[in-house]
Amino acid sequence: MRKVKFKVVYINIEGRRCSVLAGGNYRLDYSKNSIVRAREGTFGIAVFKTRKQADTFHKGRFNEKIIRVRPVGRGKAVKLVCGNQSEFELDNFYNKRLMSLTILPPLGTIFYPAVEVLE
């Protein structure tokens, strides 16, 4: 059985848990006991290896929560991620149509093709 990882999610006004930063079609919902699959053509679903790393990213921001997830598939670390998480910028980043601002991913970030939401 795979080791539990940690995902920071945003709690929207309707109480749904979704991607913190990714916008538009890249925003995913994280319902309890569901398997969430990454959008095809992306690095995958970003999670943190430890709760401490997730806490550092989260920093107690309003309407965010750290949830436990179980990775599905092979994980990978990447050197750079898109610096702006709007749908337009993510489209450009993944399709290499225009130059996009890139940044280092937060410490402990690893990407998986899917996750099982445990809580």
Question: How is this structure best described in words?
Answer:
With 119 residues, the protein is an alpha+beta fold. It has one domain. Helix content is 14%, strand content 32%. The strands form 3 sheets. It has a 5-stranded antiparallel beta sheet, with helices on one face. A two-stranded antiparallel ribbon has the order 4-8. A two-stranded antiparallel sheet has the order 6-7. Strand 1 (5-11) and strand 2 form a beta hairpin. The radius of gyration is 14 Å and the shape is globular. The mean pLDDT is 91.
Give the DSSP E fraction (strand runs of 2 or more residues): 25-35%
Q: How far apart are the first and last residues' alpha carbons, in Å? A: 17 Å
Shape: globular
User: Biggest β-sheet: count, sense, barrel?
Assistant: 5 strands, antiparallel
At a glance:
The protein has 119 residues and is α+β, with helices and mostly antiparallel strands. It has one domain (5-117). 14% of the residues lie in helices and 32% in strands.
Give me some keywords for this one.
single chain, 119 residues, alpha+beta, five-stranded antiparallel beta sheet, 2 helices, 9 strands
Topology:
Layout: E1 5-11, E2 17-19, E3 35-37, E4 45-48, H1 51-58, E5 64-72, E6 81-82, H2 87-95, E7 102-103, E8 109-112, E9 114-117
Antiparallel strand pairs: 1-2, 1-5, 3-9, 4-8, 5-9, 6-7
